[in-house]
Amino acid sequence: MDGNGRWAEERGLPRVAGHQQGVKTVVEIVNECVRQGISCLTLFAFSSENWGRPQTEVDTLMALLLEFLSSQRQRMLADSVSLRVIGDRSRLSDEVRIALQNTERETAKGETLTLCLALSYGGRDEIVRAARKIAQKVADGVLAPEAIGTADFETMLDTAGLPAPDLLIRTSGELRISNFLLWQLAYAELYFVDAYWPDFGPAELRQALDSYRQRRRRFGLTAEQTAEGEGLSNSAS
Fold first, then answer.
1. Is 50 noted as a catalytic residue in this protein?
2. What's the whole-number average pLDDT of the chain?
């Protein structure tokens, strides 16, 4: 969700105004995902690198997060939206950690949409933490090195149990993934849009979904193989 600060600066507003507008966009996009029948939405809300920003901006972002959790709790419950958080929570304040834990617990039964917030998150950091967990299992004699497979590693990631992303949307015109879900995005379709996050509304999301639907995902196979697979799938349904 990139471009909040630049959105505000171009309008002669303080950066906090961009973040406030960005939160409104989050609410709109979550609601649209519910309407579109999307089962899982992951938002890159605060990266591990964002800790290096001015402390006043970090404090503002954390305050907006607390406000979002408080204001959207009833809506999430009503819409059967469950909250899940990924990232290194140890760097978050006690107040933020408790608020996140409470909201995760209260919304745990939501089945319509899983809203996954990446907070204090970095893809490389996640992979390193997963590798440490695997290494500990090997050291404890629970797992043999030669037995380690992709599935074993994925259970150690923050996103264990969540589906691999089908579509990555990056706003603000930047053409990079910025250390986001490095393992999980291996076969995701990428969609880049020039609009800053505060200007990315439901109509822009629908355009991204339309673009995704026009693509053919081959997962390393040939076009002929995927066409055959689609035919079999259609016959089975």
1. yes
2. 94
